[in-house]
Structure formats: structure tokens, C-alpha cells
Amino acid sequence: AKELTRVDRLTIVTNSFPVISYLGGEPDKKIIFVGGEYSYEAQCCVGMMTEKNLENVFVSKTFMGTDSIDIDNGILSSNISRLAYINKVIRNSRETVLLVDSSKFKHVGVLKIADVTDVNRIIVDSQVPETGSTTSMQSSSFSPAHHVGGSAPMRCASLATAARVLSDVTSRPG
Question: Does the model's pTM come out above 0.90?
């Protein structure tokens, strides 16, 4: 959310109370809050109402996080209430950017949210494991220029890249 303050005239669709709290005072931001069942643990709205509210929401770019990522097994979560609405967000977005820190490569998630190839970019910090597990960035199924289903190449970059990715959104017409 901090990086979003640098982008002028941005429409933000979120189910996150911390994002609303942080960006709510930004007069040049249009914020669409997706309600639903409040999850204290996740500090956001989840469940069937959230999923229903997202049915007619289409965006050019989605930034999302996850509990766990395994290059071979996908984007994973331990929370079943997130499964349906995150799938809908990915389907209703032209481009999906996964923002994760290196700790997410060390956790094991219970439920598969999506395949890694369902996202267009993965932005991570510099502490990603280099060898030794299927979650490694050196996995045979992933490289920084890995092509996703014939679409734009998937990129692995630093978290600071998120601001430049956001600038791409606002510099394009429409």
C-alpha cells in the first residue's frame, strides 16, 4: 500500500482493512471496498459475499500476496475462505502480479489457489532460496524469463520494482 501513494489518480479495489486505513486519506485515490465476512486473522473480508461482490469487477492489474508458493505445486494457502475469491480476482484481471517475501517459499500451504503460471509476474525480495528444494527459484520449471501460457514473460524482481510496475499502469491510456 505504501508504494500506491506514489501513483496519482489510481483506482484501487481491495478487501483489505489495512489498505483502506493506509490509503483512505489519499484524495487522488478512488477506492472500491469489496465487503464480505470479516476475518480478524487476515484483516480483510473473505467468503461467499466477497466472491459475489467481485463477480463484476474487472481490473487491468492485480497485486496479490499468498501464504505460500511452491514453483512446482503452485500458489498455496492455508485458508479455504480465500480460495474462491482469489481465483475470481485472477480471472478478472488482465495481469496478475504476485508480491511475496522469501519466507513464503519456505512454508507449505494446504490448498492450491492457482498455478504459478496463472500469474504474470512474481516480485520477491533478494533472500529467495537458490538451491535445495522444489520451491527454489532454480527449479527446472521456473526461470526469471519463464513464459506464462503464451502471454507476457513472468519476471522475478525486487519488491522495489512494484512502484515501476504501478507506473506502467498509470502511464497507459484506459
Answer: no
